[in-house]
Amino acid sequence: MNPRTFLNSGCLLLLALLLAGCSSLLPRARSESSPFKTFEEARHAIDALVPMKSDVATLTALGIDPVRQPNTAILTHADIVRRFVPSALLKREDLDPGVLACLEARDACRGWEITAARIAKARTGNFVADFTNFSRRLETTGWRFNALVLLVNDVVVYRAWGGQPSVSEVEINTNPLGPLQDMGPYFVTPR
């Protein structure tokens, strides 16, 4: 095959893809910081813990282990005190019995703060408009979960969870000048 013919056919293929607005050529990203597949699976694992009965072995069986699970913080007694006692509005009798048991246990008390998420980001829309920086559309989907588990002598005394069961965000950036839009600061900034 003649190199010129090969080059021309490559250019035609690239031009055809650009004109088709092929969004499959746009970047995609995914972050998974959890062994749990869904928000509900994470919630069920925390709800399955029975305060004053479940222990570290139960946590491990449910897939909750700060050594194996990423983004799990191990909290000290001081961390827990800062979290539950800072407010003058909150009285001792307002605290959950498990939190009180943990605070009274001092050094035998520790906590696990679990942060889990599965987030996907995809640029969607027209490839040519995105590539030339005229218009970019970023869709973010997935879920985020957080939980707090307090333990006294390896027995769960308190558990709570929260988060976002469904994340759906769309960010649209429009630049009327396209690729020239970001050049303004380049010419204004002294070198």
Characterization of this structure:
This protein has 191 residues and is α+β, with helices and mostly antiparallel strands. It has one domain (27-188). Helix content is 32%, strand content 33%. It is built from seven helices and five strands, in the order H-E-H-H-E-H-H-E-H-E-E-H. Strands 1, 2, 3, 4 and 5 form a five-stranded antiparallel beta sheet that branches. The longest helix has 18 residues, at 3-20. The chain is elongated and about 65 Å long. The two termini are 49 Å apart. The relative contact order is 0.18.
Q: What labels would you give this structure?
A:
191 residues, alpha+beta, 7 helices
In short:
With 191 residues, the chain is of the alpha+beta class.
Describe the secondary-structure layout.
Layout: H1 3-20, E1 28-32, H2 39-47, H3 56-61, E2 72-75, H4 77-84, H5 97-105, E3 109-124, H6 127-131, E4 135-152, E5 155-174, H7 183-188
Antiparallel strand pairs: 1-3, 2-3, 3-4, 4-5
Rg from C-alpha positions?
26 Å
Whole-number count of domains: 1
> Judging from the principal axes of the Cα atoms, what is the shape?
elongated
Give the number of DSSP strands. 5
Strand content: 25-35%
Helix-and-strand structural type? alpha+beta
Q: Name the poorly predicted regions.
A: none
Can you give the mean pLDDT? 80
Helix-residue proportion: 25-40%
Q: Separation of termini?
A: 49 Å
Biggest pleated sheet: 5 strands, antiparallel
| Tally of helical runs | 7
Reading the helices and strands in chain order gives HEHHEHHEHEEH
